[in-house]
Design a protein that fits this description.
The protein is of the alpha/beta class and 156 residues long. It is built from 5 helices and 7 strands, in the order βββααβαβαββα.
């Protein structure tokens, strides 16, 4: 079962592409958008993260910190981020701790029978660390509801 609205978001400590450790608890005091995505360099994941890139002002206007999280290595994420000119941090959940804590880890990914890939999911965490929006996409081909994410941020 994934984390639900009203629950305290589980803390995580993950490395970003600059090889710095980032924790969710360090973000307290501002809203955080957490976007779990299955794999870098895939079509839907690229579309999702480029949508956020192209609309980053909407997130910045609400003082929200956006994080993209996948099980890819930080080196893979660095190359992906650079190639797509992403303007928000990507975090490596290589050990799958965050995906497990949020309840968004496939036992077996539907494509290619890969084990331990995160589901596509979106969470909005308020300044106190409480989840105010939670969405786990039904299939890896679905995108999160960006309008609902923006509405949630606007209401914080």
């Amino acid at each position: 079962m994934s984390i639900q609205v009203g629950q305290q978001a589980p803390d995580f400590a993950l490395f970003n592409t600059a090889k710095q450790k980032v924790t969710l608890s360090e973000q307290q005091g501002k809203p955080v958008v957490i976007l779990f995505f299955p794999l870098a360099f895939t079509g839907v994941c690229t579309a999702e993260l480029c949508n956020v890139r192209d609309n980053i002002a909407l997130y910045n206007n609400t003082n929200a910190q956006v994080f993209g999280i996948s099980v890819d290595s930080l080196f893979t994420l660095e190359k992906f981020s650079n190639e797509q000119n992403l303007n928000f941090p990507l975090l490596s959940d290589f050990n799958k701790d965050a995906a497990k804590a949020f309840g968004v880890l496939y036992e077996v990914f539907p494509a290619f029978e890969m084990m331990g890939v995160s589901k596509r999911a979106a969470f909005v965490v308020d300044k106190n660390g409480v989840v105010q929006y939670a969405e786990v996409c039904a299939t890896p081909g679905d995108l999160p509801n960006f309008v609902a994410i923006q509405e949630t941020l606007a209401g914080l």
